[in-house]
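Entry 14. Ran structure prediction on the chain below.
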Amino acid sequence: MNLYDSFKISASGLSAERLRMDVISSNIANANSTRSAKGGPYKRQVAILQPADPQESFQTALREKQNKGAGLTGVKVAGIIEDTSPTKKVYDPKHPDANGEGYVEYPNVDVMKEMVEMITASRAYEANVTALNGTKSMILKTLEIGRG
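Output, structure tokens:
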């Protein structure tokens, strides 16, 4: 594994976690949206992450890459899907979106769960930045050794 592979791996992680945070932000912003472009309440979105090479398990990839000396491939966003959990129904007959029985359908977004997801994505982003800075530091130290 060469040092530049670690830049690629960290960069893929940074990109994936940034997109994940964007999706979570959208969920929080639409937590009370009872109307969407598709009709009905907003549906919670989830970013699906996977290894950049989905054919390999982590254990297999690690074993093979250590033996061959090649680098790991990082992570990628496989897609953004809608959460299929049920929406919340709240009795509010005066609401403009209330049905005939007086119930309003609200999105299936739990703001507390989204905040936990946001913290997790933020920590993963920070970990990738730390790995990137560590690699940069190693390269700079290597250059200093070459000068001396």
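The longest strand covers residues 75-82. Will compare against last week's run tomorrow.
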